[in-house]
Amino acid sequence: MNKKNQKVLFPIITIFIIIFLIEIVGQLSSVSIQIAKYGSATNLKNHIIQNSKKRVLCIGESTTEGGYPKILQKLLDEKNPNEYQVIDSGYQAVSTDFFVKNIKQIYERTKPQKAILMMGINDQFLISKNDNSSSEIGNKTSKNFFDYFYIIRLTKYALGFLNQNSADERFLRLINAKRIEEAISFFIRNHDEMNNKEVILKGIELITDNLDLEEEEELVLEVFEDIIQRFPDERNYRVERLWFYSDIDNKDQVKEEISELEELGGAFQYLGTFAFQALNDPGLSKEYFENALKNEEEFDLESKAVFFILFENDKSKEREINEVISSLSTEDRKVMTPFLKKLTYRAKKELNLSEEYEYFDKNQFSKKTLKNIKSVANFLKSRGVKVYVAQYPLRSVKIFENNDFKNFKIISNQQVFSDVLEKHPYEEVFSDSFGGDFGHMTFKGQEILAKNILINL
């Protein structure tokens, strides 16, 4: 073998050996970075059961263990002395698979009348090779071939950890903590590091709704230019810049932006909305909407509202109007109300931080996680236990409402924590932000959680 080939092969072989050694060490070590391990009946907690009292079982991970159950016990004792026993069944670094496998034993050891489930966050950090189980109580099924390899699981964990600390997540963390000025500054400084298009759009809306556009015109335009250069075909960003030009009364740029949007195609609904609300030109707006219908564009909620206003009494559009109406949910109708009231003006949406920033709500739990939670809840319910499914602080309960959890009492901790963060710094309520939009709670945070759970029991 010549020296040139040796120079190429040596680093490749070295890397292979390092990966092989990591794999061997990882497979031999049962601890390593093994988040979400199953555990077994032998390492479950032993509880001293007081049969004379009603028992409340608190099931969860590190956000439960050693935290709110103690405070809940104290609150219940103050309200109903000697009537309840609160059992802390929180386990650090476990996934929902752990509870699917062990819920029978947990139940047999505690025999509760009520159970509070707050779980699922650790599933995003899965690294255990045992985590591909089914959602059947006590059963496991075959695993993905690649998940047998420790190095693959380690890589997944590292990527998950890095994602929690990405610019997108840090920005949303500031939003959910209602630190708006800091969020604006962060977005201006770090928008070029952000990759989630939906989150970037929220950042644009944030700066255009909160900055003095005349004083900060140059800064805002610079941000727009950077973002549009990165995503030249993303129409939503151009539409927002179009509104910006309209707000600062730059008619030449408005015309130029409209021309660019027309060239991109597929943006007629936005142009129709703009012509109606900003230019107060129903005729032009109708032309754009006619083109949008020809192109079979899928209307967003604001465009549906304007379309409804324009063609409400047009019999030729009766079918399209009926389709718009039938497509609206109850929540959509509430959101449309301000648009319908402000017919000729741009209806700038009030920034509802809990609702607008539902990026986490859409992505927080996988189907498997939801199936596991429901499996544990159904098992307890079948034993006559009254089950409460608690959502994590600052997160919406819609994910449960939209996934058929109607047989269980859902406890929302979104509004109560949002209200507290309006008056207190994030650090007083959470000690970290491991969950992305929330973290492990301080004593104050655990107290808030316990009091809110007590109200719902």
Q: What is the rounded Rg?
A: 27 Å
What characteristic shape results from the CA principal axes? globular
* β-strand number: 5
Helix content: 55-70%
Poorly predicted segments:
30-42, 127-135, 138-143, 341-363
In brief:
By secondary structure, the chain is mainly alpha-helical. 56% of the residues lie in helices and 6% in strands.
What does this structure look like?
- The structure is a single chain.
- The chain has about 450 residues and is mainly alpha-helical.
- The chain has two domains: about 55-140 and about 370-455, 3-Layer(aba) Sandwich (Rossmann fold); about 165-355, Serine Threonine Protein Phosphatase 5, Tetratricopeptide repeat (Alpha Horseshoe).
- Helices cover about 55% and strands about 5% of the residues.
- It has a five-stranded parallel β-sheet, sandwiched between helices.
- The radius of gyration is 27 Å and the shape is globular.
Protein traits:
2 domains, mainly alpha, Serine Threonine Protein Phosphatase 5, Tetratricopeptide repeat, 457 residues, 22 helices, Rossmann fold, five-stranded parallel sheet
